[in-house]
Write a structure and sequence with these properties.
The protein has helices spanning 3-21, 25-29, 33-63, 68-101. The protein has 102 residues and is mostly helical. It has one domain (3-101). The protein has 4 helices and no strands.
Length: 102
C-alpha cells in the first residue's frame, strides 16, 4: 500500500471518529465546512425535537393529569426526533469516511 493511500485511510478514519463524537466535525476536519455545519444544524434540530417530545411525556407523567392525546403526541414527537437523529448520525459517519477517502 502506498503512503498516499495510507494517509487517506488515516484521514478518513479520523474523520469518521470525529463524526461519531460530534456530528459534522469530521466533515469540517476534511475541509467540507458548509456540509459539516449543515449536519451540525440538522442534528441539533432533531435533538431539540427529541428533547421537546420527552419533556412533554415527562410533564404529563409527573403532572398525572389524564390527557392521553398530549401524551401520545409527546411520545410520537420524541420517537420521530430519535429516528431522525440516528439516521443523520449514521449518514454523517458514513459520508465523512467516504469523503475522507477521496
Amino acid at each position: 500500500m502506498s503512503d498516499e493511500k495510507v494517509l487517506k485511510a488515516n484521514k478518513a478514519g479520523t474523520a469518521a471518529v470525529l463524526s461519531f463524537v460530534f456530528c459534522g466535525m469530521g466533515h469540517i476536519y476534511i475541509g467540507e465546512i458548509k456540509k459539516g455545519l449543515k449536519i451540525m444544524f440538522y442534528s441539533s434540530l432533531y435533538l431539540f425535537i427529541l428533547i421537546t417530545g420527552a419533556t412533554i411525556v415527562i410533564y404529563e407523567i409527573i403532572l398525572n393529569v389524564p390527557n392521553p392525546p398530549l401524551l401520545i403526541w409527546g411520545i410520537v414527537i420524541a420517537i420521530l426526533g430519535l429516528i431522525a437523529n440516528v439516521i443523520t448520525s449514521v449518514y454523517n459517519i458514513y459520508d465523512a469516511y467516504n469523503s475522507g477517502l477521496k
